[in-house]
Predict the 3D structure of the following.
Amino acid sequence: MYKLTLAARYLIKRPITWIAVLAVAVCVFMVLVVLTIMTGLLQEFEQKNHRWVGDAVVTTDSLVGFPYYGQFIEKLEQTDYVYAASPVVRTYALLSYRGSDWNRPTELVGIDIETFARVTAFNEALYYNREDYKNAFKPPHNTDADGAVMGVGMVATSAPDGTYQRSQFPPVFAFDLTSFPLTARGALARAGLGIVSSQQFYFSDDVQSGLAEVDTSHIYIPFQRAQLLAGMDGPPERASAIHIKFAPGITTEQGTREIAALWADFVEENSDASQAFLLDQVRVESWRTFRRAVIAPIEHERTLMIAIFGLIAIITVFIILVIFYMIVAHKTKDIGILKSLGAVRWGILQLFLGFAFLTGVAGSIIGTSAGIGFLMRINQIEQWLYENYNFQLWDRRMYDITEIPSAVDTTTVVVIALAAIAICLIGAFIPSLKAANQQPVKTLQVAQV
């Protein structure tokens, strides 16, 4: 009982211990706030990528695509682990406006909108045709004209808070898309002056995926139109990828393995086909692997922040170590009296480790409470800073977020609090051991001098 009582008295009545408590609290506060925000950003970014590409992708890096995609989709639809599959054409094109010298490169994506909406969240990301997505490629002013859906960043201006300003009705304007059609061997499909394919499209809708690099560079047109512009109209017709959504209950890893095995059998069955050489360049990837290039940088940022806070934790250990050395040096008389009254080494060690434990608990409670309170108001605080000082923590146009993630995970809080207590115990162990090893006679003599 005396150990707990003395440990509590040391914590309350020794002002120097509050420096240790404050150090722990600041460490817990910073780790909780930054880890919550970075984890929230990463999870939100991963969810956006997952919803945008489906669960798995059969794809190739070749600009000429691969043939027989329709036959493979039929095989996929016969399985019990695939919910839907949709072919996609990806190529590059030059966007230009008639009567203007302005132009820009863009990534052209050809989709079958009905199947693509079953695989991805494309229909939910539309602005004007969200409730009638099947007509998204029909310009409202002329439903017989060829329409195109543009990434929102290409047609609307982003406000500082991340929202886009749109008109009530779709604007009416036309533009040309020009591409270089390629043969299955990668050569230009046409010779002479007509080596390019060009077609006029009317703006029919915009789409906001929540992915900045997608919304500022992608234009979506009907699948067959994209095949024609890219030279993939055959024979045989080719596609750049097949996006797949698994049936309920099928995990990404399980479904990807099944599709990879099915694709291997399909390649073997078509080994004698005229364009079988293109099938060897195709691979089956999960959505995470397919979007790895854009997800990895944010994962690295989060890992770097964890490493930095690891260094801060080491510094906190040394702070605790120094403070407890000072406390032990000033408590030699108390230690001598306790030992002269029969306290054993283990009891003295427990006393100071208990003191360290209470220090960690107090620091964790203060830091966690401050961190949760700050996270609950972080968006209001940032809004106030922006309105008064034009300051934002993150550029919404880069991360394409409307609010800073602030949802606190209970597991994260518990882990951080336990880690803070462990840091205190580690930092206090050597001074506590020194106190436990002191001899009562020498201690009392030193105290008397």
